[in-house]
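INFO  loader      accepted 1 record
INFO  loader      residues=122
INFO  predictor   begin
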Amino acid sequence: MTTTPTAQTPEDITRLFVEFSNAGDADAVATLYHEDAVMAYPPGEVTRGRAAIRDLWASVLAHNPTFTPETPLPTLYFGDDLALTSTPPRDGAGARAQVVSRQADGSWVRIIDQPEFQTPAG
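INFO  predictor   done
INFO  writer      dumping tokens
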């Protein structure tokens, strides 16, 4: 039985996301999210829960996109078990930010995911 790698640091999540997504593995991508995670995607909507996030990524990955690693900004920690990770995306979306949490087994998962920010019309 093959075990899906887990994020041992907050920064591992982005690397694993790219690896799992490029392999077309929505199940593995879903393991990077908390069971009750929330994700602000698709734009203007919120996807709630690991199962719904898995289904969303399955539909995205069905189109065989290629993801490129983005250089992370410094991780901001709140205590030992909560952190904010972010990257300036190459696609010009403005920023990506995630709140991540350390689990009982020491691995890290996303609990809040804002994969892209859009400037409000105004």
